[in-house]
Amino acid sequence: MEKDCIFCRIIRDEIPSQKLYEDQHTVAILDINPVSPGHTLILTKQHYETTLDTPVEVLTAVAKASYPVIKAVITGMKAEGYNINISNHKCAGQDIPHLHWHIIPRHSNDNIHFPFFHCSPRTYPKGEMEKIAEAIRKHILVNK
After folding, report:
1. What's this model's pTM, rounded to 2 decimal places?
2. Do the Cβ atoms of 103 and 69 come closer than 8 Å?
3. What domains lie within the chain, and their CATH numbers?
């Protein structure tokens, strides 16, 4: 754990939180600045900054923990849907460099807007999509 990381301090009970769920690898807490009521964070107990820094077995544990947490958030908040948001690195909107998943309960007409949902979609110029797919595929094969 990192000494000054706010999430590590929450996990060590140095900062109060509303814990909703805990297992060997994860803790789920209510976000203190919720996008909507019931906005929950699933944190890794060990300090990892991003998805790619996190061992696969810990990522699997986060995904496994998300199932009962999402069900409870949706039921408890009588939500019609939900968003799962995972930001990696500051340029992608990660404010706290400790891996965490946002579970955001949603309702029709809740007036919550995520900026990238409202961006004008781009199209690939002819041939670019194939080049990009190949650039990605060759790294998937190399890094299996």
Report:
1. 0.88
2. yes
3. 6-111 (3.30.428.10)
